[in-house]
Amino acid sequence: MDAFRIVGGHPLRGTVRISGSKNAALPILFSSLLGGSFSLSNVPCLRDVKTTLLLLEQLGLKISVRPEPLAESKGFDHNEPIWSDLLEISEGTTSPFEAPYDLVRTMRASVLCLGPLLARRKRARVSLPGGCLIGARPIDMHLKAFERMGARITIHHGYIDAETDGLEGSEISLPYPTVTGTENIMMAAVLARGTTTITNAAEEPEIVDLANFLVARGARITGAGTSTIRIVGVERLDPVHYSVMFDRIEAGTFLVAAALLGEEVTIREVESSPLSSILDVLKAMGAEAEIHTGAITLGAIRRPRGLSLRTLPYPGFPTDMQAQILPLMAIAEGPSSVVETVFENRFTHVMEMNRMGANIEIHGSQAMVRGGSRLEGAAVMASDLRASAGLVLAGLIAEGETEVRRVYHIDRGYEAIEKKLEALGARIKRIQEDSP
Ligand code: EPZ
User: Fold this and answer.
1) Does ligand 1 lie within 6 Å of residue 143's CB atom?
2) Annotated catalytic residue: which of 7, 132, 133, 339?
3) What sign has the CA pseudo-torsion 18, 23, 24, 27?
4) Is 42 in the pocket of ligand 1 (CB under 6 A)?
5) In testing the pocket of ligand 1, which one of 178, 183, 245, 317 has its CB within 8 Å of the most ligand atoms?
6) For the purposes of burial, counting CB atoms within 10 Å of the CB of 160, is it exposed (0-12), middle (13-18) or buried (19 or more)?
7) 65 — pLDDT class (breaks 50, 70, 90)
8) Which residues bind UDP-N-acetyl-alpha-D-glucosamine (predicted)?
9) Which atom of ligand 1 is the closest one to the Cα of 137?
10) 155/19 Cα distance (integer angstroms)
């Protein structure tokens, strides 16, 4: 299995292109099950995207990626998208409706096929995603919404069996602003008969990107990005070409890297507004960010200050940035605290960071960080996508050599992160685990 070998302490300088958003690309790709055809650009070359394309092909869709992925052919230029700039999807001649366990278990976002399959094929058989390391992550809110829209749902042998005579627009009030739940319901409502209103909807930028894409295809959606979204069902969707938004969590990860070690780092192909909560936290810790059109420049914080934060649904500080901010808190002057309000068990990376010399205590959903640590390199184990990113950042600032193992986690959500960091001056290499 792959690992990263990092030698810490090397300053970062230069410009890095932020890739397309995993969490915008996935729902947009799954919406292809609503029928018709479209093409996309700025789709990131990630394991989760490849898993999604595999599942969509198994569900009968025709997919072409042109030109072939550049990473294998022309080598890597960190300023250019690794992957092709054109991905085309269209309906095939078959319309199966089963998402098998062996794919769903590797990527819980596969549940995003439920809404579009019900809307278009009136049938779906999807393996229950099961829990994952960061929490139970049930999908009860998705299923209750589909039942309100006229789906009949049973669960047998670990599979969700859903069918409908035709979805009806409905009033859906979400107990919690679930991100993929909002996306699933929105996609189901696009072809439903009548109007659907989602209240207490999630407001993430990726939901706005999905809505913008569907509206570009002729869907009738208003209110995306607010807590109330209204969808009036249409008969069909039109072809379109669309470019996926940038990945705000990758952008946030590189902003923290810059705050840790940047002489002067510029991230480009970004907008600042989706990054506001991350920029606010970094500024409160002492960072000075220069906001340009389409780019942000940040240098290392000379004497980072500790602070307290809570992870919250957008526009709050994202839970997907919690692991990444901890190394900066660990070395800051003064204490910090992080309350994780979104997931029930998202601190597995803390034990590994403490092995590197951080001083973090977990009390229930709160991490108490004693600042002033000097991190030391160590062999550490990645446990999930964002924990991996946090450990890489810790390795960049640690004294000596760090080996981050199980980096297949990080490949799920970051496009060649080691090559982008190396191009900025980091000493980081991808190796086979246990290689000398
Ligand atoms: C999305 O997951 C993201 N994934 C996650 O990013 C992100 O961490 C999360 O939103 C929160 O922002 C994608 O967009 C593909 P939720 P999702 O439904 O939709 C509970 C990453 O690193 N809940 O908003 O699964 C749930 O247990 C990934 O890119 C229910 O109880 O998150 C959790 O505690 C990790 N019942 C909370 O709500 C439900 O039916 C938030 O979950 C649905 C959710």
Assistant:
1) no
2) 132
3) positive
4) no
5) 178
6) buried
7) confident
8) 108, 320, 342
9) 27
10) 38
Here the tokens at position 392 are: 């890489």
Distances (CA, A) of 305 to 69, 134, 357: 42, 28, 18
For CA atoms 356, 361, 363, 369, the dihedral sign is negative
Domain coordinates of the chain in residue numbers? Answer: 2-19+303-432, 22-243
Architecture of domain 2-19+303-432: Alpha-beta prism (3.65)
> What are the tokens at 198?
């989602």
pLDDT tens, residue by residue, 241-300: 999 999 999 999 999 999 999 899 999 999 999 999 999 999 999 999 999 999 999 999
Residues 6+ apart with CB under 8 A from 30: 52, 56, 109, 112, 113, 116, 187
Q: What is the mean pLDDT of residues 147-167?
A: 95
Vertex 209: Cα angle to 205 and 214 (nearest 5): 145
**Is it true that domain 22-243 has CATH number 3.65.10.10?**
yes
* Tokens found for residue 328: 């900066």
Question: Which candidate, 408, 412, 326, places its Cα nearest to that of 362?
Answer: 326
Asked if 2-19+303-432 and 22-243 have one fold, the answer is yes
pLDDT, tens digit (0-9, with 9 covering 90-100), for 271-281: 999 999 999 99
pLDDT at 131: 66
Residue with tokens 């009968």: 60
Q: Angle at CA 205, nearest 5°, toward 201 and 211?
A: 70
Query: Cβ(116)–Cβ(189) under 8 Å?
Result: no
Give yes or no for residue 71 having a pLDDT over 50.
no
Amino acid at 54: L
